[in-house]
Fold this sequence. Notes:
With 140 residues, the protein is an alpha+beta fold.
Amino acid sequence: MRQNETFLRVRYKDTDQMGVVYYANYFIWFEIGRSELMRSLGLTYKQLEQNGILLPVIEAYCKYKNPARYDDQLRIVTTLMFLREVKMGFRYEIFHKEKDLLLVHGETTHAFVSKAGKPAVLRKQNPFLWKILRDALPET
């Protein structure tokens, strides 16, 4: 499984009236982690889209363990969990960087679809992109 770490600092605008990070922001940070993992593989979302592949989220999950607060430094660990012909999945763990404390963990599943919104079999539509993603997974 291919992993990537991304770091960011909680901005004031990310917090709610209680002074903790608003729950939906973790999904934005999942996207940041996922984008950086893809970039570490030599792919960007822009390149995927230029090749006619879109990756809509078809499932999302987040378990909240501890709150993040303004100015906390975070470490986002993103893992490519699985790759199927028409979908792929990621796991995320977000930690308080200084305390090495798990704040949230979650998962997303994404479908490969054409620009017309139809399911795309990536292995057939773009063998080059398929190989890059397949090579990022452990031997099975």
